[in-house]
Design a protein that fits this description.
Layout (H helix, E strand, L loop, with lengths): L3 E4 L18 H12 L7 E3 L6 H4 L5 H12 L16 H20 L5 E4 L21 H13 L4 E5 L6 H7 L5 E8 L21 E6 L5 H19 L3 E6 L16 H18 L4 E5 L5 H16 L1
Parallel strand pairs: 1-2, 1-3, 3-8, 4-5, 4-7, 5-6, 7-8
This protein binds zinc ion (ZN).
Amino acid sequence: MSDTALIYDQVFQEHEVGRSHPENPSRLKAIVSGLKSDPKTSKLLWHKPQWAREEQICRNHSREYIDLVRRKVAAGSHSLGFPDTGINARSLDAALAAAGAVLTGVDMVMQGLAGNAFCPVRPPGHHARHFMGMGFCIFNNIALAAWHALDKYSLERILIIDWDGHHGNGTQEAFYHLREVFFFSIHQDMWYPFTGKKSETGQGKGKGTTMNFPFPAWSDGRDILPVFTRHLIPAMEQFRPQLVLISAGFDGLRGDPLVRLGLDADDFSVMTRIAMDIADRYSDGRLVSTLEGGYDLNGLAECSIRHVRELMA
Ligand SMILES: [Zn+2]
């Protein structure tokens, strides 16, 4: 089965923390209208997610933190109280739907209902930690997807590729001591959230299953793409993942207002193809990708379309 599922819920656009905020509903409007008007993506399987349940969220987050999110949303607060965690009345629903979308994606590819899946969600997730949100993220969608695949499908080896321009600190932290989940990240060096040094490679049983490649500002595809061929592909010959997950942030695109990297739209196609080749080789093609950052609306839409076209190829 090689069809691509697009897992989307209108509630993703209802989470809003101010129109001038870079992480706003226009991001998804741009992606959705781009995908709907592109003849090459007309065969996408549009699918509504099953929202995540609290016991599923608990797999990666403390009960106290989940209670705090519920309390703050119910009270009409404008922030979770951590830096860069604005909320409104719809934020809990949007966050449950966002996590649920990636879980639904895992279910669809594991059950053969789709070959691969892309989940353009808000809020994003890769900065969210066990006990706190941060960096526009409430629940860690990609980490929850990996836990779901480990628990429900008894997988033993999962690869997470995080090509967002910021380091996915929350995801790394979730699996730092675990050998079952391999975390590979490229990101801008010395930039928010200031983690993801090359020397961070995992601990205990997880030693060697974390790989970080921080790049100086203005690095472009010629600098960044070679680490996929020189480091990721050989590592996967050893690891042999049974499922490939992508934290697909598009803020490494040249001109993004929040990151100073120089990737172009072609580079995102190339990275998608590399991830798919790994999935084809070891995972029967099973791949689930979810949106993280990306704040230049035109660039975000273009890169998302290129990503999805490649997933459908
Ligand atoms: Zn980012």
